[in-house]
């Protein structure tokens, strides 16, 4: 089988020559998925050279079609040979067949790749702000005082990160405190359990996810700004500090709250491997005991999966004396506190997208892989560097009351 | 005919040497150089005791015990003090040279007109034939004395072969054979394979010394030099024996070794008869063993156990 | 019951090649339990087994088996209480000797080896019956040298021999690793059957996580001479191969967590 690609405006014209059968189906699917991942969401298949289509081939087309559907793209098969046309009609997939190319498709090739604009900027509402609320301020490695544990319900309009447990009672929670983040009525949290599987809670009818939090930064309000970023010839991926800088450049506030969704180039982070609830007394824990309490990713992890990231950032000089943010060593003018959750990859729709729907898709999909507190590993020589994303989206607004972070 | 009987007798006597070496070299897989010293030890001890009027049987028993002690020391040097096997043997063999001189008081003791293990048989034979000094066998005139020695040695060799076969088939003997092939396995099966090595070397050198005792009585002297090259003769005999009958069972192996030793002596007797210079005998034997060790084909399969080179203390 | 307390062993101590093969290992195996040890190469799995078998003396610590303190017993003496199967199918049997003779040797493990003839008629019947349970047709080949059998057959026999005297503990060191996949599966199955039937206490090193999940009722993970994970009881029930993989991963990550990481996290983990 031979596949030829041609960019026609927003459309990717794909000429498939030869047999699309069991032998080639897997290869074909992978090729097309790769293009979808790169942002090609409008696919036209020129089947004039496709001499055979088997059930395996149909299943492959169906997978591509479904993937395209999740990103609201388009999928069309034109110039089908009689055999292919008949096969698709008898298998009730005639809706894929088109008599001609879409009207808005240019007649000639428009260069090899779609034009990636790097960072695209959208403004929903210039005046939108976020309000910080409901804080809990555990710091490592304080013993947990029950009176400081906050029980919080995470409604649709709350975004949060912190350390907490989904247990009902404080006693049960004791050995379960771990990193979490919450967006749009969904919570994903990492039990400090040996197996390392994160768990998650989703708003459903009457049920609202609830956590016992020992550390909590949360805000509610409207996301006024929206960025999309995709790789260009020069920029293959975006380190977090670059994304943070871009966001801060757009707002007039001192500090912002943000949510990001993006394909991972590499995540560097740390998470509790033992619940702080088990601390007998406040103490300084250092090497090597610290290894019993914290796990470190040890590598740039989860490449090509999807990250859901929640955080706070601001300029160092604007936020003096804060305790809840830390300086980014590779970019010391910024302070940040960022948690990231990892989900198996799913493509995002192009253009302007809505936070809640985009996030919901991941919570309704396959289970999350990890939750961590992201760090900027700027150790000389051996440092793993910052977490970075390849392509994705972020939503942000300035914080009305950044002094709460101090 | 007396040549043939002589070769047979010599073969039977040396088959005890070969059987001893079968245990050390083949069964427990220990390259035991002690042999050259312990055969002389057996000869010298018997010579001294017989000259002093002790029973030749008792003298042979003492020889066996002394040889066992020598073997045991070699084994302990190796297992206790972790000395290489060859070196352990060399140390004991070297020490035995002085010890043998000490025992005999000089380098050579003649054994003329003394009672030997075959004296009894000779008396019986003489009674049977009415005092004649020769016996007619199939038309050949055989001296009664030679025949008596032959018969006695046959009985001893067969007796020992049977005992040895039975021993190797017992639980202890089975473990001993296994210990040489796979020391790790026998240790895992609760056998102290160091003990097995020491025991095997004691048994082997006991038999070698017994062979030395009979040799001295047959030749009529004990000489401090008589052990030189004996180890290689033993090896040659074992190789011939295995070529004759293979190694498919204990009984066959032992029979083969005895037959091999006899055949080897016959070949030597023939070679000497044809004019081989006796001084070249040891070189020819060495060459024969060398050929057997390196030659391809059927020799290869027989000899592979000898080409392993040095082995260090197990454990 | 096997009780290992603060067991340590360092090879080539005080040299450039120093290997701390066991570092203060503690382990208790209940009677009738079947435990698998997994871990990366060189993590000390075999060393732990060898310490129990008595191949060397530990630097510190003690080993108790049933009511005996066997810490200083020589290897051959411990064999009265221990059955072993090695990784190498050639290691556990004597190739030149017959199946019968090999079994006879194993049958007398821990007993005085008498001067009675070893292979007798009555005994042959008993052996044939036991060998028949392997379902390999070996009962008709009892007088063949064991070297004529395949690796899988030899390993099955070694297993049978190791279990013959119902040892207090059965030590299996990657005993299916050197076999082809089919024989390995067969021997693994036999292992489970024999251990269950004879109600043996067993400690098995394995390279196969699938085997570790399928066969035993406890999994221990070793890393750099330490036991870093112990899946027991209900934890063992739910553990699957990917869990073991991720645990491996975690253990290795912990390796990368050094003092400089700790310093960095002190600044940034808030
Ligand atoms: N007899 C020995 N002498 C020296 N080093 C040894 C010895 N036995 C094991 N080691 C070393 O101890 C470490 C652990 O080995 P081992 O227990 O065999 O690991 P594994 O977990 O792969 O079985 C390795 O680094 C190995 O090289
Ligand atoms: Mg945090």
Put the structure in a nutshell.
The complex is a heterotrimer of chains A (406), B (315) and C (270). By secondary structure, chain A is α+β, with helices and mostly antiparallel strands. Chain A has seven helices and 24 strands.
Which key features would you list for this structure?
heterotrimer; A: 406 residues; alpha+beta; Transcription Regulator spoIIAA; 60s Ribosomal Protein L30, Chain: A; 2 domains; eleven-stranded antiparallel β-sheet; seven-stranded antiparallel β-sheet; 7 helices; 37% strand; elongated; B: 315 residues; mainly alpha; ABC transporter involved in vitamin B12 uptake, BtuC; two-stranded antiparallel sheet; two-stranded antiparallel ribbon; 4% strand; disordered C terminus; binds adenosine-5'-diphosphate; binds magnesium ion
Quantity of strands of chain A, as a count: 24
Low-pLDDT residue intervals, each spanning 5 or more residues of chain A: none
CATH architecture of chain C: 3-Layer(aba) Sandwich
For this structure, what is the CATH class of chain C?
A: Alpha Beta
Which structural class do you get from the secondary structure elements of chain A? alpha+beta
The chain pair with the largest interface is:
B-C, 23 and 35 residues
What is the strand arrangement across the widest sheet of chain C? 6-7-8-3-9-10
- The shape of chain C, in one word, is globular
Quickly count the domains of chain A.
2
């Amino acid at each position: 089988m031979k596949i030829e690609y041609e960019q026609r405006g927003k459309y990717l014209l794909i000429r498939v020559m030869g047999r699309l059968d069991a032998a080639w189906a897997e290869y074909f699917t992978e090729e097309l998925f790769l293009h979808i991942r790169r942002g090609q969401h409008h696919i036209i298949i020129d089947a004039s050279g496709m001499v055979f289509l088997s059930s395996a081939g149909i299943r492959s087309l169906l997978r591509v079609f479904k993937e395209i559907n999740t990103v609201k793209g388009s999928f069309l098969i034109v110039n089908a040979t009689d055999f292919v046309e008949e096969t698709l009609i008898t298998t009730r997939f005639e809706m894929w067949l088109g008599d001609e190319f879409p009207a808005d498709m240019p007649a000639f090739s428009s260069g090899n790749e779609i034009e990636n604009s790097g960072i695209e900027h959208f403004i929903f509402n210039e005046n939108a702000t976020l309000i910080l609320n409901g804080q809990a301020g555990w710091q490592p490695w304080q013993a947990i005082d029950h009176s400081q544990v906050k029980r919080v319900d995470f409604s649709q309009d709350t975004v949060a990160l912190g350390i907490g447990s989904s247990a009902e009672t404080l006693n049960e929670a004791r050995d379960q405190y771990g990193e979490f983040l919450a967006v749009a009525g969904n919570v994903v949290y990492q039990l400090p359990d040996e197996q390392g599987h994160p768990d998650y809670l989703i708003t459903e009818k009457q049920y609202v996810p609830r956590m016992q939090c020992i550390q909590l930064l949360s805000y509610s309000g409207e996301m006024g700004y929206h960025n999309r970023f995709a790789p260009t010839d020069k920029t293959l991926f975006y380190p977090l500090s670059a994304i943070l800088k871009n966001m801060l450049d757009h707002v007039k506030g001192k500090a912002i709250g943000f949510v990001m969704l993006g394909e991972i180039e590499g995540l560097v982070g740390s998470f509790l491997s033992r619940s702080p609830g088990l601390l007998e007394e406040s103490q300084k824990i250092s090497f090597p005991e610290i290894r019993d309490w914290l796990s470190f990713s040890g590598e740039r992890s989860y490449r090509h999966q999807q990250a859901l990231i929640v955080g706070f950032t601001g300029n160092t000089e604007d936020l003096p004396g804060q305790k809840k943010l830390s300086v980014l060593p590779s970019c010391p003018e910024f302070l940040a506190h960022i948690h990231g959750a990892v989900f198996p990859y799913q493509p995002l729709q192009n253009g302007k997208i809505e936070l809640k729907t985009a996030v919901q898709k991941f919570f309704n999909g396959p289970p999350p892989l990890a939750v961590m507190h992201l760090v900027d590993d700027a150790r000389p020589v051996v440092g793993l560097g910052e977490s970075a994303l390849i392509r994705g989206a972020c939503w942000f607004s300035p914080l009305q009351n950044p002094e709460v972070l101090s | 005919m007396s040549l043939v009987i002589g070769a047979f007798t010599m073969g039977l006597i040396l088959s005890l040497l070969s059987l001893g070496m079968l245990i050390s070299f083949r069964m427990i897989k220990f390259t035991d150089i002690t042999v050259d010293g312990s055969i002389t030890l057996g000869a010298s001890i018997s010579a001294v005791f017989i000259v002093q009027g002790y029973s030749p049987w008792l003298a042979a028993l003492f020889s066996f015990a002394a040889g066992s002690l020598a073997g045991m020391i070699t084994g302990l040097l190796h297992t206790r003090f972790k000395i290489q096997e060859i070196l352990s043997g060399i140390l004991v063999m070297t020490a035995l040279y002085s010890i043998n001189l000490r025992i005999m008081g000089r380098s050579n003791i003649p054994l003329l007109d003394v009672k030997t293990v075959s004296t009894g048989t000779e008396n019986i034979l003489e009674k049977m034939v009415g005092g004649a000094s020769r016996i007619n066998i199939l038309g050949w005139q055989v001296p009664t004395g030679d025949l008596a020695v032959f018969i006695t040695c046959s009985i001893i060799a067969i007796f020992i072969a049977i005992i040895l076969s039975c021993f190797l088939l017992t639980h202890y003997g089975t473990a001993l054979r296994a210990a040489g092939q796979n020391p790790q396995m026998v240790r895992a099966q609760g056998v102290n394979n160091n003990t097995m090595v020491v025991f095997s070397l004691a048994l082997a050198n006991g038999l070698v010394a017994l062979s030395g005792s009979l040799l001295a009585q047959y030749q009529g002297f004990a000489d401090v030099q008589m052990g030189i090259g004996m180890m290689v003769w033993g090896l040659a005999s074992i190789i011939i024996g295995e070529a004759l009958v293979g190694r498919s069972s204990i009984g066959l192996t032992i029979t083969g070794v005895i037959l091999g030793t006899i055949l080897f002596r016959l070949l030597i007797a023939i070679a000497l008869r044809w004019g081989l210079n006796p001084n070249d005998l040891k070189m020819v034997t060495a060459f024969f063993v060398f050929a057997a060790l390196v030659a391809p084909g059927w020799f290869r399969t027989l000899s592979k156990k000898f080409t392993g080179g040095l082995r260090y203390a197990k454990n | 019951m096997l009780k290992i307390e603060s067991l340590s062993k360092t090879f080539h101590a005080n040299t450039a090649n120093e290997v701390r093969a066991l570092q203060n290992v503690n382990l208790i195996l209940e009677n009738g339990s079947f435990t698998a040890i997994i871990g990366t190469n060189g993590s000390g799995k075999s060393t732990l087994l060898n310490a129990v078998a008595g191949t060397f003396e530990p630097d510190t610590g003690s080993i108790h088996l049933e009511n005996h303190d066997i810490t200083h017993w020589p290897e051959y003496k411990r064999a009265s209480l221990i059955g072993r199967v090695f990784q190498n199918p050639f290691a556990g049997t004597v190739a030149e000797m017959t199946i019968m003779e090999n079994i006879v040797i194993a049958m007398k493990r821990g007993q005085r080896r008498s001067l009675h003839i070893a292979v007798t008629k009555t005994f042959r019947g008993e052996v044939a019956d036991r060998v028949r349970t392997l379902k390999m047709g070996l009962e008709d080949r009892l007088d063949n040298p064991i070297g004529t059998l395949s690796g899988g057959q030899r390993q099955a026999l070694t297993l049978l021999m190791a279990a013959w005297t119902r040892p207090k503990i059965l030590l299996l060191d990657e005993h299916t690793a050197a076999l082809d996949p089919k024989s390995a599966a067969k021997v693994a199955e036999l292992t489970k059957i024999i251990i269950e039937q004879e109600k043996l206490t067993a400690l098995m090193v394995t390279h196969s996580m699938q085997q570790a999940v399928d066969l035993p009722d406890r999994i221990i993970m070793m890393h750099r001479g330490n036991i870093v994970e112990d899946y027991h009881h209900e934890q063992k029930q739910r553990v699957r191969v990917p869990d073991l993989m991720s645990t491996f991963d975690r253990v290795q990550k912990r390796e990368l967590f050094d003092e400089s990481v700790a310093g960095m996290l002190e600044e940034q983990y808030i």
